[in-house]
């Protein structure tokens, strides 16, 4: 596979992750429909996972307080680490 074909596959993968129809991806990239169907099956778990995580934010996680280093600019505080 040369660089051009690799780039087409990369673009097709991104389009499929963006939930574009396979027919439209085939029309834009010129890749074989059978190959795109296999690629769509390969990308499907990532698309499902993205849908699950889409509306998630820190209030849904209920993780409590988050600790952070408030001495980020103080070098003396980091000497012992």
Write the layout of secondary structure elements.
Elements: H1 3-17, H2 22-29, H3 33-53, H4 58-61
Helix pairs in contact: 1-2, 1-3, 2-3
What does the model show?
The protein is elongated. The model has no long low-confidence stretch (mean pLDDT 79). 59% of the residues lie in helices and 0% in strands. With 81 residues, the chain is mostly helical. The chain has four helices and no strands. The chain has helices spanning 3-17, 22-29, 33-53, 58-61.
- Percent of residues in helices comes to 55-70%
Secondary structure tally, helices: 4
Shape: elongated
Our measurement of the CA-to-CA distance between the termini, rounded to an integer number of angstroms, reads 49 Å
C-alpha Rg, in Å?
A: 22 Å
| Main sheet attributes: strand count, strand direction, barrel closure | none
Average pLDDT works out at: 79
Q: Would you report the number of β strands?
A: 0
List low-confidence stretches.
none
What letter string, H or E per element, gives the SSE order? HHHH
Tell me the structural class: mainly alpha
- % residues in beta strands: under 5%
